[in-house]
UniProtKB/TrEMBL annotation:
Taxonomic source organism: Strombidinopsis acuminata
Protein name in UniProt: Uncharacterized protein
Alphabetized Gene3D superfamilies for the sequence: Histidine kinase-like ATPase, C-terminal domain
InterPro entries per the UniProt record, alphabetical: HATPase_C_sf
Length: 487
């Protein structure tokens, strides 16, 4: 008795959550999230709504290829489960009453395909005559037939759904970068979903791949030095420079990101994808005290884009703030986070997130590119570190002069903005040698200790300590061949 109640409550909760998820997808409010998933967790018999029933395996057989050792895959489990549950439900309602409903699951070239196959139901012969079947089945408000147990009911039309089930499944598939289809064959009906589902891969693949083919990049940064770093990151990904746009030099550019991306998507071929990297704290020029949140901007831009355009976008926020609450905010609004003080090369981090979102085929293996005559020849990235360090040193010194001059008249919120920018530059340029790393870490720690709504009472003394460390950092780490540059 208690077990039956628990099962019923669980199924009710699943139904409510599925309806909420479908609503979010249809209104463009759902952000797909891929994560490692075992296929039996998303498509196992427990999703059929009759867990433990003795006839489950007989009536609802599931076959996989490979038959054993099916790998863990990166996929949005919630979307996958929703589509599968709907497919099973439709097969039971519209197929042969009590008939076999089988599932075939295949994984090939990091692409998942599952098919739900049911025996013919009433009026199946009429469905086989349809000529534009996918257009009709997956359109909003289209209903081609009644459930098999309601065909003879005089009140059937009052009891069936609005006919949006196929449309919802199509939108879910698009959110997963995939597509769905249906075939009415003489002896069966086959629903099929195909979507990227990268198997958990050997990280060595990331060393031999790039984004040189069919990828455009947009970066947004308000700091000259950080714009140079973005350009360097895109170079290391081997995205052709003609396909790279970096914005943020003026307030006008910062405020027009949405229109810039919309225009870009309108001009791109339908198979092209876009890498969008935005700084979290975009400060408008002095004397303005306004700061634009890059992650919120990305969130707004994504809501404005058509669903098919958003499905071709990887939006990442870049920041030196990586607290648990910060990360939750970023991931609620975008597809991923890049730390300005990275523990691994940004190129590797971006490629990993790119493959998780779009699948292995979306990246270009270098060995394949060398054999492909259509691949774009790219010049070897230039050695920009000395120039980057010079720009970083110049920017740190400019900010030190600004803070010195405005120490007593600038509001604390504004002072903190500039301190935060200093922290970001130090984090990005943190050297690999032990002494330099220690100095950079101490600088970041001292600056971070001043975080808060109010100016620390001893901030003047703290600032003198920070200035001394910055002078040492510029002289010994950024401009070691020119000791006078830090003075």
């Amino acid at each position: 008795m208690l077990g039956s109640m628990r099962t019923g409550l669980s199924h009710t909760l699943e139904t409510v959550l599925s309806q909420a998820l479908a609503r979010d997808v249809l209104h463009g409010n759902y952000v797909p999230r891929t994560a490692p998933c075992r296929i039996e967790e998303a498509l196992g018999n427990e999703t059929l709504g009759i867990p433990g029933a003795p006839e489950t395996n007989h009536r609802f057989p599931i076959r996989t290829r490979p038959a054993v050792g099916f790998p863990v895959i990166d996929v949005d489990r919630r979307l996958l489960t929703l589509v599968y549950r709907n497919a099973i439900s439709n097969a039971c309602k519209y197929g042969k009453s009590g008939g076999i409903v089988s599932t075939e699951i295949e994984l090939e070239d990091h692409t998942l395909t599952f098919r739900v196959i049911n025996e013919p139901g009433p009026r199946h012969a009429d469905l086989c005559k349809l000529t534009r079947v996918n257009e009709q089945v997956f359109s909003k408000g289209r209903r081609l037939h009644l459930p098999s147990d309601m065909v003879d009911s005089q009140n059937a039309t009052a009891r069936v759904s609005k006919g949006d089930g196929g449309w919802i499944m199509k939108r879910c598939a698009e959110c997963m970068q995939g597509e769905c289809s249906i075939r009415f064959e003489p002896e069966r009906t086959v629903f099929e979903l195909t979507c990227p589902a990268p198997a958990r891969f050997d990280e060595a693949f990331l060393e031999d791949a790039d984004l040189s083919v069919d990828v455009w990049a947009v970066g947004v940064e308000d700091c000259e030095f950080q714009r140079m770093k973005l350009a360097e990151i895109f170079d290391k990904l081997r995205i052709p420079r003609a396909r790279v746009t970096i914005l943020g030099e003026s307030d006008e550019e910062l405020k027009s990101i949405g229109s810039t991306l919309s225009i870009l998507f309108a001009r791109l071929p339908p198979y092209a994808r876009v890498l969008f990297v935005v700084d979290e704290n975009l400060d408008l020029k002095w004397p303005s005290t306004e700061t634009i949140s890059g992650s919120y901007m990305a969130h707004c831009v994504r809501k404005e884009l058509p669903l098919e355009a958003d499905a071709r976008l990887l939006a990442l926020v870049r920041s030196s703030n990586d607290s648990e609450s910060d990360l939750k905010l970023y991931l609620d609004r975008t597809h991923g986070f890049l730390n300005k003080a990275p523990a691994e090369p940004e190129r590797i981090a971006i490629l990993r997130m790119w493959i998780q979102r779009f699948g292995f085929k979306s990246a270009t293996p270098i060995r394949q590119k060398d054999k492909d005559s259509k691949a774009i020849a790219m010049p070897a990235p230039s050695k920009t570190e000395p120039n980057n360090n010079a720009v970083a040193a110049s920017e740190i010194q400019r900010l030190m002069r600004l803070l010195d001059k405005s120490m007593h008249e600038m509001p604390w919120s504004e002072l903190w903005r500039w301190l935060h920018r200093v922290k970001g530059i130090v984090g990005v340029t943190r050297p690999s040698n032990a002494a330099g790393t220690d100095l950079a870490n101490r600088l970041i720690h001292v600056i971070e200790s001043t975080r808060g709504d109010d100016r620390p009472v001893d901030f003047v003394a703290i600032w003198e300590e920070i200035k001394g460390m910055l002078d040492d950092y510029v002289r010994t780490e950024l401009m070691p061949q020119n000791p006078e540059s830090g003075e």
